[in-house]
Amino acid sequence: MTIKTKILVGLACICLILTAFFWPGKEEDAYSSGVVREAEEISERETEMLAPDEVLLSPNGDIRLQTLYNQKPVCLFFWASWSGDSLRQLAILEKAYVQYGQDIYFVTIPVGPDTAASQAYVRQQGYGLPLYRAQEQMLREYGIHQVPQLFFIACGGQMTRPFDTVLNERQVTYEIKKMLK
What we know:
The protein has about 180 residues and is α+β, with helices and mostly antiparallel strands. It folds into two domains: about 5-45, no CATH class; about 50-180, Glutaredoxin (3-Layer(aba) Sandwich), CATH 3.40.30.10. It contains seven helices and eight strands, in the order H-H-E-E-E-H-E-H-E-H-E-H-E-E-H. The chain has helices at about 5-20, 35-45, 65-70, 85-100, 115-125, 135-140, 170-180; strands spanning about 50, 55, 65, 75-80, 105-110, 135, 150-155, 160. Strand 2 and strand 3 form a beta hairpin. The longest helix is centred in the N-terminal third of the chain and has 19 residues, at about 5-20.
């Protein structure tokens, strides 16, 4: 055997030994579902916001939002009757309310100068969604400058980012089921 052949055989043996020690599957896969899920949970906890506690005004008496989200998750929706997107989202939320109303609180707050028209619209459509009113302070705290704005608040007050586009039924159901886990 020549020296060149001996070197090649030696390198091949080293490669085989290294391959045996570092073959994929011996260590936990960094992309396995468990590792990814754990990373998502950590990331989610670090970026979550606590929902501001504000007073909700209703015909049955005022209630603090914190009282609600300490008992069950909350679906908080700011809307106006003049907004087509608001009305589409309201119809989708009504379906979710029928299905999940016993498991989470639905809080719908018409905003703007036409809250009476918004309340009339809900009655006219036969919706069961509960209507509340909000003080200006709540609108500032939640950054409501346009409608629709939809928030999901988990038990304890962890709040999602605001959704300012219309979510379809599947998306609303996904967010609700996430809160109910």
